[in-house]
Amino acid sequence: MIQRVPFPENAPGDFYVEDGCCLSCGMPTTEAPELFAYSESGHCFVKKQPATPREVYQMTQAFAVQDVGCIRYKGSNRVVMMRLVGIGEGEQCDNLSSDLASLTEEMKSDPWGLGGKP
Fold this sequence. Notes:
Blueprint: E1 15-17, H1 27-31, E2 36-38, E3 44-46, H2 53-65, E4 71-73, H3 78-86, H4 98-109
Antiparallel strand pairs: 1-4, 2-3
Helix pairs in contact: 3-4
């Protein structure tokens, strides 16, 4: 398993931006401006962990629009992981259970539920 290192300025908690991964694309702040910020070097980070349903939604939307998969989830909340799997971001979960990992692979191979047909 790949060891992920959070960027040092991330707020403590389950959501984080991986160190050295950010391209300064600006996408996370379009979806969750209250939750993300940029360091002086231009690296994005989670400045505030989501604390309300609206913020959790915004955070998951930031996963959906990120350019290179730098936003990650290291928690174990199954509902959060299911939401991320549902938007095609299950691989961004550090502790994905085997059944959800299977579902992630299934969704990758048939994202529209058409039995693999384009």
